[in-house]
Amino acid sequence: MEKIPMTSEGHAAMETELKQLKSVERPRIIAAISEARKHGDLSENAEYHAAKEQQGLNEARVAELEDALARADVIDVTKLSGKNVTFGAFVEIVDEDTDDEVTYQIVGDNEASVKDGKISISSPIARALIGKTAGDSVEVATPGGGKSYEILKVRFK
């Protein structure tokens, strides 16, 4: 079984979501199915079919979270340090073409969120950054063509 790297923050968020799905959403959906059954013929009951679809989606997400948590390799990023980009690092980079600066934290696949400044360890940009230090330039193959970035700063919290 392949381990999934994740931060302790990401692990806690997944546990919270799993608890919510099991203790709040699951009973709500069961009650909705029960209520819809009371309305008679199930073959033409839109409420019943919608509730059953919600149940399927909820149970699929529960299974996905349970699998990820079972395979989690939780890394406490507060104990990491160094000059090289590794999992958990905050990396400040500048696009060499546009001079746009951005800071990303490299995290596990399940906790990546570009809007929150978190990129997946398996993303092309993270793979290009791993092992590099401040001052290095990296080339990243993107769907829109190659991009060049310079690493301005590497830090750990």
TrEMBL record:
Q: Which residues form the Transcription elongation factor GreA/GreB C-terminal domain?
A: 83-155
Q: Which UniProt keywords apply?
A: DNA-binding, Elongation factor, Protein biosynthesis, Transcription, Transcription regulation
Tell me the superkingdom of the source: Bacteria
Q: Which InterPro entries does the record associate with it? A: GreA/GreB_C_sf, TF_GreA/GreB_CS, Tscrpt_elong_fac_GreA, Tscrpt_elong_fac_GreA/B, Tscrpt_elong_fac_GreA/B_C, Tscrpt_elong_fac_GreA/B_fam, Tscrpt_elong_fac_GreA/B_N, Tscrpt_elong_fac_GreA/B_N_sf
Pfam families from the xrefs? GreA_GreB, GreA_GreB_N
Is Membrane a UniProt keyword of this protein?
no
Function of this protein?
Necessary for efficient RNA polymerase transcription elongation past template-encoded arresting sites. The arresting sites in DNA have the property of trapping a certain fraction of elongating RNA polymerases that pass through, resulting in locked ternary complexes. Cleavage of the nascent transcript by cleavage factors such as GreA or GreB allows the resumption of elongation from the new 3'terminus. GreA releases sequences of 2 to 3 nucleotides.
User: Hey, which family's this protein in?
Assistant: Belongs to the GreA/GreB family.
Q: What is this protein called?
A: Transcription elongation factor GreA
